[in-house]
């Protein structure tokens, strides 16, 4: 009785005609795709159009599905019955020529076996559920796939999901509600899934679990159809008219009301045919439902579901075809990257040679910026090398002031140390050379650091080459990394040696004749302009006179004496010499006032015959009293261990300091530009380009050996598993693509 056919249960009046049923062209396509992708299980990433049935426990979901099929075939009970997702495909068939009907079911896990007895279908569902979820109310997310072939159904695909429960029973975990909700959301959150939200009429619609979880997945209500069950057991004096009209909680796809078989009807084996007749009688006997014929009854629900599903499939089908096509290309590429297993030595040698050649080409392409997989999110390959040269190395050198760690006292000490035991007549060249060499030497460390940066970048580039192809050969990958690492280190050494030579060349020859060098005369001229126009006090005044009371002739002598270093050397600590001595010194020294400094920098006369020396020699050549008559009463103090110049700085020293710093900056800029140009060239020649030219030859020399083939081309088990999995996925996608374009 329970398995009796129901010719009119879910069939529209016109379905018996020769016209093809609604959705006959598109729903079978989706059904085939579902069967194909079911082979991949949870690995499938393609979202197919489907209708998911959600609701709380005992809301009447199973009764609705059985009414759509017209058969009793689902597990029943007062507790949770649906414990695994049941994918139910309803497929309309034609009646036989003699008018008889053939209805049967098929499970995907039992291919080729037809179940004509629907009670056996129920038992198989129960057995398959217990095999996966256990026999004590456990829940599993692994699907059961069932096809129902019947002339009394419309083409619909439904997914019956476990009912939402609050209290765990049996073997159910304490968080059973959260787990079931997570399972339901994994189906209904995808835009390709329609939601059939089942709510009993004898409960408050505002508290419906089905509508609440559907609202989370479909907040705009574009994909949700409301099903109001158990209309016949509502409280007396109440009805569901406003619910069906969407006046309580509106849904864009509307509501359909149905009358379920009661548990008593099921126990008495009341057929679904009789239940549908009773349902029709119920709606006709209730005037409140007049005008709502398209929203009442299981036949209308089947028709509405079929129409909505067909339209939904037509909407998503173009995008589905595009996703299958793009996924097919991606998986085919991944499968190709795993290659095929090669056993022969000749095949292994050819494979290894091909990998080494492709690796060398990929390395060069990444350095030259010709890589096909060029990133659009960040700089990579050769662009990073150029960035290091120009934005890190060059800009860092340009930001250095050669005099930032050089104080005026440092320059004064250098000048005085360069004079040795004698006072200098001119500003010596030695301090300039000593100081400029010190600044040039500072360029060595950043230059070597730049070479190390480029070495690190080349290592990174080597790690990005043929990543997918070499995944299957970890031993070969390791050997190649060792070879290229050693090769790059060998290239780094001559680069660093050349950089050291470049710095040494700059230090060994200070080219003060360089056309861009400022020169001594120009430096002195600028120094005098920069010197503050403040008169420096003399250490001792002559004859106790105030400076403004000294005769004009003597003041002029003082001025010449203070600037004596421009002509003669160091200012004496013994005060201003007599006019006659000064004139004598001036007449015997260099008479050119513009010859400040030595010829190589300052362009002056290199006449070192000093009038001061004559004056000193003359003073000490005078007669000296005998030792007995000249007993000394003057006690000299010992010189300190560390001697520094006096705090008072003369005008001449100020000019010298400014001039030396100007010369340092001028020559440092010349050297810096040379270094900025030569160091990148040295690195490119000895390290980068040398690696590009010789990498393939080095690989052949180090790795292409027949006794190493088997070891280096050994695959790990996980790669073999990935190859097998991608091969299966590729086969499934190819089947799906043929179905969708046919």
From TrEMBL:
Residues 540-557 have a biased composition (Basic and acidic residues). Residues 7-21 have a biased composition (Low complexity). InterPro entries: Dynamin, Dynamin_GTPase, Dynamin_N, Dynamin_stalk, G_DYNAMIN_dom, GED, GED_dom. One of its GO terms (molecular function) is microtubule binding. Residues 1-21, 537-558 are annotated as: Disordered. The keyword Heme does not apply. Residues 657-742 form the GED domain. One of its GO terms (biological process) is mitochondrial fission. Keywords: GTP-binding, Motor protein, Nucleotide-binding. The keyword Nucleotide-binding applies. PROSITE patterns: G_DYNAMIN_2, GED. Residues 45-318 form the Dynamin-type G domain. GO terms for cellular component: membrane; microtubule; mitochondrion; peroxisome. This is Dynamin-related protein 3A-like. It comes from Carya illinoinensis.
